[in-house]
Every structure is written in C-alpha cells, then in structure tokens.
Amino acid sequence: MSIRRTREDSLSAGSDPFGGDADFGVWADQKDKPEQRMTELKVAVIPGDGIGPEITKAAIQVMEAAARKFDVKLTHDSAPAAAAAVDLGLPPLPDATLKLCRDSHAILCGPFGDPRWDNAPPADRPERAKLILRKTFELYANLRPVKPVPALLDSSPLRRELIEGADILIVRELVGGLYFSEPRGYFEDEKGRYGVNTLKYHAWEVDRIGKVAFEAARQRRNSVYSADKANALEATQLWRETMQKLHDKQYADVTLKHVFVDNCCMQLVAVPKQFDVIVAPNMFGDILSDIGAQITGSLGMLPSASLGAGVPLFEPVHGSAPDIVGKGKANPLAMILTVGMMYTHAAKRPDVGTAIDDAVAAALDKGYRTADIARGNEGEKLVGTREMGEAVLAALAG
Ligand code: IPM
Ligand code: MG
Predict the structure, then answer these.
(1) CA within 20 to 30 Å of 160's CA: 2, 42, 140, 144, which one?
(2) 277 lies in the same domain as 169
(3) Where do the H-state alpha helices sit in 9-51?
(4) Which residues face 259 on adjacent strands?
(5) Measured from the CB, is residue 357 less than 6 Å from ligand 1?
(6) Which of 58, 116, 59, 52 is nearest to 79 (CA)?
(7) At 23, is the secondary structure helix, strand, or coil?
(8) CA of 36 to the centre of ligand 1 (A)
(9) Do 307 and 231 have their domain in common?
(10) Per-residue pLDDT, 278
(11) How far is 37 from 33, CA to CA, in rounded Å?
(12) Contacts of 252 (CB under 8 A, 6+ apart)
C-alpha cells in the first residue's frame, strides 16, 4: 500500500500546507500491482562534487542497462549544482538545474561539498544547494536503509555475529528541525559574535514523518523506535508526545518505543539487530545514519530516497570524498543502490530495484571490492570505480 496522507487522517489536519499530495511510491507489497508501474522515467541527474561525477558515470550505466532490461523508457539529462556549478561561474543551484528537476520524475543526485569552502559560513557553502532542493520539493521523508550485504559481513568494524541479519530503515525528517528553523544566522551582542540555530517542530511535521515510519514498519517487522532528546529539549518532548498520540490513534498495531538519541547511537553499535524502523528529527537522523553506515561496512554502501510533496530525490548518504577524487577508486555502490531506490520509489518498479540490489550483491559475492570495503581476505579482487560498475552490469545482464 502506498503511503498517502489525507487531511482526514491527519491528527493536526489543516495545519499542514502540503496536506494530501505526498506520494511515497511503493513498498514491498506493491510488487503485485503492475497498474501503478511507470513505463516512462525522466531523470534529472546532478553529478555533484568530488567523486560525484565518477560514481555517477557508473550509476548511469546501471540505470540505462536496467531500463533496457525491464522495458522502462528512460530519458535523462545532467545539470550542475554545488561547487561544480560555482566553478562554471553559476550559483550553487542554477535556475536551469532547478527547472530540469521540476520537469523530471526523479532527481538523481551525487554528493555535494568541496574543501575550498571548508571555512565558509553554511549559507555560502555548496552543500546549501542540497538543502534548498530538499526544501523546494518539500522532501520531508528521507529513507536510509541499513542492511549489510552478506558478502560484506566481515568488512564492518562490528563483529559478524552482531550485524548478521540486521535490517534497519532509518526514517529521517528532512526539511525541519535544526536545519531549517528560524531564527538562524550570525549575530552580535555586548559579549561578541554568536551563531544561532533553532530546533522547532510543529505537531503536524512530527505527524507526517511519523506516518511514514509507521506505514513502513507495517510492511516490515512492525516496530518503530522514535529517537528524541525528550529529557532535555522541549521540541523533542513534543515530538515524543505527538508520536505517541499518532501511535495510539492510528497505529496501535505497531510497536512503538521511544529512545533517547544518545542511547540510540550506543544501541546501534551494541545491538543493531533489535531495530526495525528508526524515526528521528533531521539532525539526529543525520548522525544516526552515519553510524548505521558502519553496520554495512562502509559509508560507500548506503543509498537514500527523499520523498514528500514534490519531485523525489535520490542520493547516496556519503560525501564527496575529496581525498580520493580523480583516482578512479571511489566505491560506486551507494550511488548504484540509490538508482535501485529510484526505480522502486519514483518509477514504482520495485522489481527493478530488487534486480539492482541483487546485482550489487552478486558482484560482491564474486569478490569484487573497492578499497573502502577491501579487507585483504582470500578471494577478494581489489578494483576501481569502473571495474566495480562493470561487475554490477555483468551481474544485471546475467
Ligand atoms: C547528509 C549530509 C547532508 C546533511 C550535508 C551534506 C548537508 O550529511 O545528507 O547526510 O547534513 O543532510
Ligand atoms: Mg550526513
């Protein structure tokens, strides 16, 4: 069943300016509903910064091969953003790039960020373009699946027995909280300069992300952990209350546990298998997902989907890795798995998404490893970005 919010079922109906039009694509049980499938898919590709262009090249090849194999009429066009745009004399999010995104069914986005802006204030940094994209399309639900591939169980810094069988979905609120609330900025008073960010959540914002988490849990193992800091912060005390009310009113069949975010971080590395869905405010979800990445062996393995009212955006969780740019050794798998999420959620083709996941698993089974996931074990073949992409393509064709 797709997650469709309606004003009627919203606890705080009427206060959500985007009420009713969010479409969360498909979950696993929609495999049997071919009528929802899209036969055409128009993708706006933003390769991004650093290793972005290298991994995007590999991901586009997989995206095209999957379209051919599964009869999707795929078209795609690329446009710059972030540092790549600034280097062309353009703003971090050029109008033409935004227009291309608006005119597409999905946005496939590489990592943003460049060390030349390391000391710049947030508003001037290239990554800002990503936040603007998320906000422009009101992509409030960021899905970050954390599921170790069997072949990589020994690549994680955590012991195999801890992570084997772990299967977590982090649902991160993406357009509110500390990242977007006002007031924000730099100010000055008699004690000198100071910086301000604000953590604010309306109940309707908690409601809409809570629904995504509960609906996802119903398709999985029926459990939601809601991460907050209700022992110290009012905004997340309200988060906790709202999650509980939503649960009691509409999702009593799902197990809901509240967990302080610091404890959640600890539990994620101590007993990762206890988690099914974790829902968290923007900032906490950012941190939790980087921890989650280590359960899969590398940040280079984590894809994500950002869904909401407008054009959905798909991006790997990792950054632009300036230290290995141009060396051809970046791991393209997070970006390739991201293409899989795009087929599942934007094109409503979970069959294609699953085929891409399987092809990645098969390439890893054959021993192919980029440097970040290589452990020097017997049978491993150390490869670069291009060869890893080719191994996935071969598996997809086979
Ligand atoms: C992420 C990233 C971004 C975020 C940065 C690049 C702004 O860390 O997507 O996790 O904090 O959301
Ligand atoms: Mg992050």
Answers:
(1) 144
(2) yes
(3) none
(4) 227
(5) no
(6) 52
(7) strand
(8) 31
(9) no
(10) 98
(11) 8
(12) none
pLDDT of 298: 84
Centre a 10 Å sphere on the Cβ of residue 341 and count the other Cβ atoms it contains: 28
Both tokens of 38, joined, read: 């899209």
Alpha-carbon torsion (286, 291, 295, 299), positive or negative: positive
Same domain, yes or no, for 160 and 185?
Answer: yes
Q: What is the reported pTM?
A: 0.90
Q: Residue 351 has what pLDDT?
A: 96
Q: Is the CB of 110 under 6 A from ligand 1?
A: no
Question: In the chain, how many domains are there?
Answer: 2
- Pick the residue whose CA is nearest to atom 7 on ligand 1: 127
Residue 38 pLDDT class (50, 70, 90 cuts): confident
Spatial separation of the C-alpha atoms in residues 71 and 75, rounded to whole Å:
12
Task: Give me the phi and psi of 31, to 5 degrees please.
Answer: -55, -25
How much is the average pLDDT of 6-20?
31
Phi-psi map region of 285: left, alpha, beta (phi>0 left; psi -120 to 50 alpha): alpha
Nearest Cα residue to atom 4 of ligand 1: 286
Residue 113: CB within 6 Å of ligand 1?
Answer: yes
In the chain, the N- to C-terminal Cα span, in Å, equals: 31
Residue 271 pLDDT exceeds 50: yes
* 287 and 165 together in one domain: yes
Q: What's the rounded Cα separation, in Å, for the pair 126 and 133?
A: 12
Dihedral sign from CA coordinates of 216, 141, 211, 291 = positive
Q: What is the CATH number of the domain that holds 271?
A: 3.40.718.10
